[in-house]
Write a structure and sequence with these properties.
Layout lengths: L1 E4 L5 H5 L3 E2 L2 H5 L16 H5 L1 H5 L1 E4 L5 E6 L4 E6 L5
Antiparallel strand pairs: 1-5, 2-3, 3-4, 4-5
């Protein structure tokens, strides 16, 4: 899991080639993350609350990884369920 900030101009470049999930698809994701922390705010609670309505969730091609973008705070979160090699 990685949390990061980005410039508004980078939004399109980050999401090019990724499939944006619908709100229902995003809410169904198994978010294996810590509970709320200042550095990782994506969890089941935020996905079901008001924040989940503004978050953009993208599936990374080829597998079990996702990019979550919060355009309001220019914060991104990437997580993968792949086992590191």
């Amino acid at each position: 899991m990685v949390g990061f900030n980005f410039a508004p101009a980078d939004h399109g470049r980050m999401t090019t080639g990724l499939r944006r999930l619908s709100l229902n698809e995003a809410r169904g994701l198994p978010v294996d993350a810590p509970t709320f922390t200042p550095w990782w705010t994506v969890n089941e609670r935020t996905m079901l609350g008001k924040a989940g309505n503004r978050l953009e969730v993208y599936a990374v091609p080829g597998g079990r990884a996702w990019l979550v973008v919060d355009p309001a705070s220019m914060t991104g979160f990437y997580w993968s369920r792949e086992t590191p090699r």
